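Lab notebook, bench 4. The sequencing result for the construct came back, and we need a structural model before the next group meeting so we can plan mutations. Quick request posted to the team channel:

Model the 3D structure of this chain.
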Amino acid sequence: MSIIEEKASRPTAPRPEPERVDGPNAATPGAVPLVALSALASAVLVACGGGSGETDSRLGAQAVGSRSAGAGTGTAVPPLSAAEAARFLQQAQFSSSAAEIEQVRAIGMAPWLAQQMAAPLGPTGWQWLMDQGYNREDIIFDSQYSDFMAWNQLITAPDAVRKRVALAWSEILVVSASGLDGESPSFAMAAYWDVLNTHAFGNFRQLLEAITLNPAMGAYLNTRGNQKEDLVTGRQPDENYAREVMQLFTIGLYRLHPDGSIQRDGSGRPMETYGPSDVSNLARVFTGYDLDETGHARATYPVAFRNPMTLRERLHSRLEMEFLGARIAANTPGAEALRLALDTLFNHPNVGPFIGHQLIQRLVTSAPSPQYVARVAAAFADNGAGVRGDLRAVTAAVLLDPEARQGTAHQAPTWGKLREPVVRCVQWARTFGAVSSDGGWRMHDWSDPSTALGQSPLRSPSVFNFFRPGYVPPNTALALGGQTAPEFQITNETSVAGYINFMENAIAFGIYGSSTSKLWVPSYDAELALSGDPPALLARLNLLLAAGALSQATLDLIAQAIASIYSTGANTDWGSQARVWSAILMVMACPEYLVQK
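Done. Here's the predicted structure in token form:
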């Protein structure tokens, strides 16, 4: 078992999704390894171990943003440390600049988060594709432009918290560009991504309806063009979306307690939430929907793939619908049937713990305690003002919970989560100011685990995401304890080596989308200024990349390695650059960085 596996998080209650899904394996352009840097990174991977340099997080008043003394205690709340602020930022968004760290320290975590969630929606993915001129007939069937859009959004958008949360939602309410065919798939994916961003801090009920009527989702899970039953031909409504909206998007397979633990019958068997009859009846609700072509112009203005799908009543089922204890009478108009069905799903008691658990996994830890899940589920049930499904309250509950904010002195050794490859790459790009050399952001599908990241945004191999929330790595110490660690489903010997080789090349020379287009860091000025002082350089990288989580032993080891690289001290010579490149790579390859605490 690897060191990384030993540090992965541990569950306190088994999750109901044991199925395994193979990781993505689409071929993509490879990265050229730098032998010298690989050798240094390999040495660190072998030697660096446990421990963390992070100080304890401040709980209580500080956890909700107060900088004042504890009420009635006469004891001042200790100031928020830079490491604590950086750790919070790396959970709430992708990166933690020095300026952002100081801002969080100055006003507190809760006020900073409230400001970010109240900030207006940044530039949309749809408009970016239009501005880039990708609304052309000659590329009408090509989905690769949605890759460019996604990377651009994640790396450059000013609303980074919204983008981080939207990425989490894209791994729960999954649509994949790899599963879309037909006209304008890039624009369809952009419209789907924009829906997630628009509703990220809205209400889950509105998000659920928007995603149900989204054309990309309609194509991906077969509601687009789905028709009512036909007794003559034997046709029945397609059940794909009806099944997945319950299993994956709202309530899950088994009944849950408010803390996310599974309800069991008198014989100890898990109690299922739905059966075949619920699926077939609910499927009737999702009939009669198809593209709304109002304002649509093929290729040049493909708005039919952005407009919510429209109902064609004559194709909608008129039969009675009974599911999850609800009944929709025969001949109920389609729009009313949809409202009643989504209300039923939204109000199911499973939704809070089921969705809350997954948001915690995506942002904070792979195996939250039942108490943590229960607190987030309670925020979903009531935002404090009697509103159910308020995602702003839910997001705040996830990120500001005492368990999320606890310091390493209070954490179990296995607490935390493996950083997703996409998140690592975006963090690097945002931290060091990476830019597109030609403004086109030609970053492709980097799903190949042998030559690239092993993951690419909006490119899940199936509706079950890149990894399942209940995944436990088999034949490991994690499996002995039943420890869920979802991201390990796309982690193996091939993907670990592929990630290091890919980032090694990216850090030094950029990520090439073509012979003339690349994502690259124009200058590591601040880091180059410290190249002659390895401990100072690593102190900066430890804070900005790992939120102070690297142990002193690891820092000493990396410092020795980069000090061995010849440097005259000039900021522009190859030796100084090699020191900086090597230091960044070794930090980003170290288990203490890879496992986010």
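The longest strand covers residues 321-323.
Will bring this to the meeting.
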